[in-house]
C-alpha cells in the first residue's frame, strides 16, 4: 500500500462554474464521491480550501519577502484542495482521480506521498520529525 | 511511459489499469451481474471472461473512457451468449420432451434492455447486492479455505495469482478451489439474495470469521514473505471497512474492524531487524501506528456505543485497546484486561482464552493465582500438545522461584514447539535457570 495525494487544480473558469452550482447540489456530488472513498477504505485525509480571493501570497524571490493579497489572477491554475488516499498502486490512485467530480478547466494532479521510513533514520531532524508524527498520530 | 493509460497501450499498462479498476469495482460488477443473471456462478465466470478480454483489448487500444462500463457491458454480452447456449440446450431438451413452442427458446427474452444511465448498476440496490455477494462467498456449504479464496476473488477483487502468492499455494490450486466453490454454490441452489432475517446473525458470524482468517493469515509473521502477508492483512482491513459501511448497525462488524486496526498498528514493531518476532513486552511502542490506533479506538467506540454489549471480536479489540493506550507493560491496566478475558471466556469459551486470562491474572494479581488457572487447564487436559501451556507454566514457576519445575516445563515447551526460533528462545530460558 502507498499513499497518494490527489491535488485539485482548478482554473478561474472552473471555479466560476462551481460557484454557479447550487451549494446543496455541490455538497451532494462531492459528498457522494467522498462516501465512495470511505466505503472503499482508501480515504486517509482530505481538505478543501477557501476562496482564493481571501488568500495571501508571500513572494520569497526578492531580498525581502513581498506580501500581496489574492486573488492571484496571473496564476493559470488554482490549488483548491486535496485528498490523501491509501491505495495499492499509482493506477488505483489514477482510477480514483478520474472519478473526482469536476468540470471544464479542473485537473487533478497525483503525487505519491513518501513515508518517513524513506528518509535517513539517523538524521537528527528526521528523528525529531518522527517524534512529532508519533505524538500527533501521523506515522 | 506512464503505466496509467495515458501512454501508448501495452500489456503491462493494460494489466495495471485492469487491476486498478477491478480492485475498486469488482464486487459491484460481479454483484450487479449476479442480480441480472440470477446466477452467481455465471456472473463470476463472465466477469472473469470480461477481465481476460480487457487485458487483450486494452493493451491493443488503450484503456477505454469508461472502464467499468466497458467491463460490465462485455460481461453482459458474455452472459447473454451463455443464456443463448443454454436456451439452445433447453430447446434440444424441449424437442426431446416435445413440449417447447417454436421460437421461444431463441427469443432472448432473458437479455436486459440496453441502459444508458451513467451508473452501470442500480445505486439503490448495489449495496444489498454487494452484501448478498459477500454472504454467498462465505456460505456455510463451502469449506473454510474455499470461503477465503472466493471472498478474496469476488469481493476483494484479487487475482488467482495474488491469492496463491499470499497463501503459499500454487495458482492451479487456487483456481481449482474457486471452481469447486462455485460449483458447490450452484449445486446447493443458493439463491442470489440476502439471507433471511432468522439466519442473518449466524451468517454474519460466518462472514466475519472469513475476514478474521484472512487477517490472521496476513498477520502471522512466522512464515512466508512477510511483506506479501501484511498486504493480505490490509485486504482484510479494507473488506472490514467496506462491511462497516454496508452494515453500520452491527456492533461486531465495528468490533472486528477495531481488532484489525489495533492489531495492525503493532505491525511495525513486531519484527526485529532480522525478521525475528518481537514479543509484545519487548516491542518499541514508539513504532506503533498511532493513526491506526485512533481508527481502531473509534471503531471500538462505535461498537460500544450501540449498547448491545461486545461480542468476541469487540472484546478482543477492547483488550488490544488496553495495550494500545498504555506506554509500557507494567503501566497496562491488567485488571481491566482480566475482566475482558473473563467476559470473552463467557461468550467464546476456549482454552487459549483461559491461558491468556491466566497471563493477565499473573500481571494483575501475581503468579500464584495464575498458576491455579493453568493447573486447571493441565488437569482437564484441554491444551495438551501445545507448547503454549508448558511455556506459560514455566514462566509462572520461574516467578515463584520453583526453578527445577520451571526448567522442566520450559524444556517440555521447547520439545513441543515447532517454530525453530521460538524453540531456541525457550531452551535459552531453560538453560538460564541453571
Textual characterization of the structure:
The complex is a heterodimer of chains A (139) and B (434). Chain A is built from four helices and six strands. Chain A has 139 residues and is an alpha+beta fold. Chain A has one domain: 2-Layer Sandwich (Alpha-Beta Plaits), CATH 3.30.70. Chain A has a four-stranded antiparallel beta sheet. The radius of gyration of chain A is 18 Å and the shape is globular. The mean pLDDT of chain A is 85. Chain B is mainly alpha-helical and 434 residues long. Among the domains of chain B are: 92 residues, Rna Polymerase Sigma Factor, Chain: A (Orthogonal Bundle); 121 residues, no CATH class. Helix content of chain B is 68%, strand content 0%. In chain B, helix 9 packs antiparallel against helix 10. The longest helix of chain B is centred in the N-terminal third of the chain and has 31 residues. The N terminus of chain B is likely disordered. Classes of the chains: A alpha+beta (139), B mainly alpha (434). Chains A and B meet through helix 3 and helix 4 of A and helix 1, helix 9 and helix 11 of B.
Please supply descriptive tags for the structure shown above.
heterodimer; A: 139 residues; alpha+beta; Alpha-Beta Plaits; four-stranded antiparallel beta sheet; two-stranded antiparallel ribbon; 4 helices; globular; B: 434 residues; mainly alpha; Rna Polymerase Sigma Factor, Chain: A; 68% helix; disordered N terminus
Helix and strand topology:
The complex is a heterodimer of chains A (139) and B (434).
Chain A: E1 2-10, H1 12-20, H2 23-39, E2 43-48, E3 56-59, E4 66-69, E5 78-87, H3 90-98, E6 107-113, H4 124-136
Chain B: H1 11-37, H2 40-61, H3 67-97, H4 126-137, H5 144-155, H6 160-167, H7 171-187, H8 197-219, H9 226-246, H10 251-264, H11 290-305, H12 312-324, H13 334-347, H14 351-365, H15 367-379, H16 388-399, H17 403-416, H18 420-432
Helix pairs in contact in B: 1-2, 1-3, 1-4, 2-3, 4-5, 5-7, 5-8, 6-7, 8-9, 8-10, 9-10, 10-11, 10-12, 11-12, 12-13, 13-14, 14-15, 15-16, 16-17, 17-18
Amino acid at each position: 500500500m502507498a499513499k497518494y495525494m490527489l491535488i485539485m487544480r482548478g482554473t478561474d473558469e472552473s471555479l466560476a462554474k462551481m460557484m454557479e452550482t447550487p451549494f446543496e447540489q455541490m455538497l451532494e456530488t462531492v459528498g457522494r464521491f467522498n462516501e465512495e472513498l470511505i466505503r472503499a477504505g482508501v480515504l486517509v485525509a482530505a481538505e478543501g480550501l477557501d476562496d482564493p480571493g481571501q488568500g495571501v501570497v508571500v513572494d520569497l524571490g526578492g531580498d525581502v519577502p513581498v506580501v500581496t493579497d489574492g486573488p492571484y489572477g496571473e496564476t493559470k491554475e488554482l490549488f483548491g484542495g486535496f485528498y490523501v488516499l491509501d491505495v495499492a498502486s499509482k493506477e488505483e490512485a489514477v482510477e480514483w482521480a478520474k472519478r473526482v467530480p469536476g468540470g471544464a478547466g479542473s485537473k487533478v494532479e497525483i503525487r505519491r506521498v513518501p513515508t518517513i521510513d524513506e528518509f535517513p533514520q539517523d538524521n537528527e531532524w528526521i528523528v525529531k520529525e518522527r517524534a512529532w508524527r508519533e505524538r500527533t498520530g501521523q506515522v | 511511459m506512464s503505466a496509467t493509460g495515458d501512454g501508448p497501450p501495452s500489456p503491462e499498462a493494460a494489466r495495471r489499469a485492469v487491476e486498478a479498476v477491478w480492485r475498486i469495482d469488482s464486487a459491484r460488477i460481479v454483484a450487479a451481474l449476479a442480480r441480472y443473471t440470477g446466477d452467481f456462478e455465471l456472473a463470476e465466470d463472465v466477469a472473469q471472461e470480461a477481465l481476460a478480454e480487457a487485458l487483450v483489448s486494452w493493451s491493443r487500444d488503450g484503456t477505454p473512457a469508461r472502464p467499468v462500463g466497458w467491463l460490465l457491458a462485455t460481461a453482459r454480452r458474455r452472459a447473454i451468449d451463455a443464456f443463448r447456449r443454454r436456451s439452445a440446450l433447453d430447446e434440444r431438451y424441449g424437442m426431446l420432451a416435445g413440449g417447447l413452442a417454436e421460437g421461444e427458446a431463441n427469443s432472448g427474452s432473458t437479455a436486459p434492455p440496453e441502459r444508458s444511465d451513467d451508473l452501470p448498476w442500480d445505486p439503490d440496490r448495489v449495496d444489498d447486492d454487494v452484501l448478498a455477494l459477500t454472504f454467498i462467498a462465505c456460505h456455510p456449504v463451502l469449506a473454510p479455505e474455499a470461503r477465503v479464496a472466493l471472498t478474496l476473488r469476488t469481493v476483494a477483487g484479487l487475482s488467482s495469482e495474488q491469492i496463491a502468492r499470499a497463501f503459499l499455494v500454487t495458482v492451479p490450486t487456487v483456481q481449482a478451489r474457486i471452481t469447486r466453490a462455485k460449483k458447490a454454490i450452484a449445486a446447493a441452489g443458493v439463491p442470489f439474495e440476502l439471507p433471511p432475517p432468522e439466519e442473518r446473525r449466524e451468517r454474519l458470524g460466518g462472514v466475519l470469521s472469513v475476514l478474521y482468517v484472512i487477517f490472521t493469515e496476513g498477520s502471522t509473521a512466522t512464515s512466508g514473505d512477510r511483506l506479501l502477508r501484511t498486504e493480505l492483512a490490509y485486504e482484510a482491513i479494507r473488506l472490514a471497512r467496506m462491511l462497516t459501511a454496508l452494515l453500520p448497525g452491527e456492533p461486531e462488524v465495528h468490533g472486528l474492524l477495531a481488532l484489525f486496526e489495533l492489531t495492525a498498528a503493532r505491525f511495525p514493531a513486531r519484527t526485529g531487524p532480522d525478521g525475528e518476532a518481537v514479543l509484545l513486552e519487548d516491542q518499541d511502542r514508539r513504532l506503533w501506528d498511532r493513526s491506526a490506533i485512533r481508527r481502531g479506538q473509534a471503531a471500538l467506540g462505535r461498537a460500544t456505543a450501540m449498547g448491545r454489549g461486545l461480542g468476541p471480536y469487540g472484546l478482543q479489540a477492547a483488550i488490544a485497546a488496553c495495550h494500545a493506550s498504555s506506554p509500557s507493560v507494567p503501566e497496562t491496566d491488567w485488571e481491566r484486561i482480566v475482566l475482558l478475558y473473563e467476559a470473552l471466556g463467557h461468550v467464546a469459551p476456549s482454552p487459549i482464552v483461559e491461558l491468556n486470562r491466566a497471563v493477565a491474572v499473573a500481571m494483575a494479581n501475581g503468579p500464584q493465582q495464575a498458576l491455579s488457572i493453568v493447573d486447571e487447564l493441565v488437569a482437564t487436559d484441554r491444551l495438551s500438545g501445545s507448547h503454549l501451556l508448558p511455556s506459560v507454566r514455566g514462566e509462572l514457576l520461574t516467578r515463584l522461584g520453583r526453578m527445577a519445575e520451571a526448567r522442566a516445563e520450559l524444556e517440555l515447551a521447547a520439545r513441543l514447539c515447532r517454530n525453530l526460533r521460538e524453540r531456541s528462545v525457550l531452551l535459552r530460558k531453560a538453560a538460564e535457570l541453571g
